[in-house]
Design a protein that fits this description.
This protein has 18 helices and 5 strands. It has 373 residues and is mainly alpha-helical.
Length: 373
């Protein structure tokens, strides 16, 4: 084989080669065309092609299709891969799902992209990719990386947008997207998607769930709109306006804890620690058990000097989410304020085990003189 053309703009370690005439064989009903250059995954051996195999060629084609599904000769590459590895779609799908479940998001992402490039008409890899982005965004949010979490969630939104435009429609895309928008508090859009799903799916259990959600959304549409306005105002930095709207929501929905959470969140952002704590405690009385609420409450108590109470609420949050970096980090801050330097250092080292580059933990350890401990 000859004519190696290494293109650094391509993903991974790919090189393009031409297969010699002597290897222009048939693979089932597929015929290898030596005139078409094929991508090769070089791997750790770099540019050494002495051990070239069909597996390296298939891997290169998958890597290319993952990044450039509309690349030149893409149809040829797809036919080549499916002829050489007839069961590869099912095999890689199982591997990707397993990797995603185990939290190996980068590998799972590449697999789902490769499958989507291999079979652009198949919606399943794209749906798996959207769910993967949602799970990854949730993990980043738990780690306190809110900005990066939003970026990844935007990727999920982009994939759902493509899925919902597919013809023929893929029912499960509408079902999953409904939950995606429900979590984002886009209630009107979520209701539309669940209604569409209920009208096209034969899965009676899912249809019943979708209709149940639609009915619940209809009865709460006005309240949800009010809640969303308060949430958006606080998130956009208009805390005073958001708190006022949240108080109106709570007055109209006295048995709902979510409104008091927004009141506390807005007051905490304004530095009104005592009022924020009061609102969060009211939310707890109404049945809230959310980790974020416990964390926000602990911050107010920390600033008020109620360190024992702050620690207690953080420990309750940690029992719910044992690897939540924000919670562990705040436990370190509380321990330090309580004068327990060694204990604080232990919490910050625990943070670094989960997030090696965490700047707050590194700075705190440096200040404690325990960076090398």
């Amino acid at each position: 084989m000859n004519e190696q053309h290494d293109d650094s703009a391509r993903p991974g370690t790919l090189a393009f080669i031409r297969i010699p005439e002597s290897m222009a064989v048939r693979i089932g009903s597929f015929t290898v065309d030596p005139a078409i250059p094929v991508p090769v995954e070089l791997g750790p051996s770099g540019a050494d092609l002495s051990g070239l195999s069909w597996e390296m060629i298939v891997a290169g084609m998958l890597r290319l299709l993952a990044a450039e599904p509309d690349a030149a000769h893409a149809v040829y590459y797809r036919d080549f891969v499916l002829a050489a590895k007839p069961g590869i779609f099912e095999e890689l799908s199982e591997t990707g799902i397993l990797k995603a479940r185990n939290g190996d998001y980068p590998v799972a992402e590449e697999i789902f992209k490769a499958l989507s490039g291999l079979s652009p008409e198949a919606p399943e890899p794209m749906l798996n990719l959207a769910v993967l982005y949602e799970d990854s965004a949730d993990a980043l949010e738990r780690a306190g990386k809110d900005e990066l979490s939003e970026t990844v969630r935007d990727k999920a939104f982009a994939v759902y947008k493509r899925l919902l435009a597919m013809e023929p429609p893929f029912p499960d895309a509408f079902f999953n997207a409904g939950f995606f928008f429900l979590k984002a508090r886009s209630f009107d859009r979520a209701g539309e998607l669940f209604e569409t799903f209920a009208g096209m799916s034969d899965d009676q259990a899912k249809v019943a769930k979708a209709r149940e959600i639609v009915a619940r959304l209809r009865t709460r549409s006005d309240a949800d709109s009010s809640f969303r306005a308060a949430y958006d105002a606080i998130k956009m930095g208009r805390e005073e306006e958001g708190v006022a709207l949240a108080l109106e929501f709570s007055a109209a929905n006295p048995g709902v804890w979510n409104g008091w959470f927004l009141v506390g969140w807005g007051r905490r952002r304004l530095g009104r620690w005592a009022e924020g704590r009061e609102a969060f405690l009211k939310a707890l009385e109404l049945g809230a058990e959310e980790t974020d609420l416990l964390n926000e409450l602990s911050i107010c108590e920390m600033e008020l000097g109620l360190l024992k109470e702050s620690r207690g609420h953080l420990e309750a949050a940690l029992r719910r989410e044992p690897e939540n970096v924000k919670i562990i980090s705040n436990l370190g801050v509380v321990a330090r304020r309580m004068g327990r330097a060694d204990e604080a250092a232990g919490f910050f080292r625990a943070v670094l085990e989960l997030e090696p580059g965490d700047r707050l933990a590194l700075a705190q350890l440096e200040e404690l003189g325990a960076a090398g401990a």
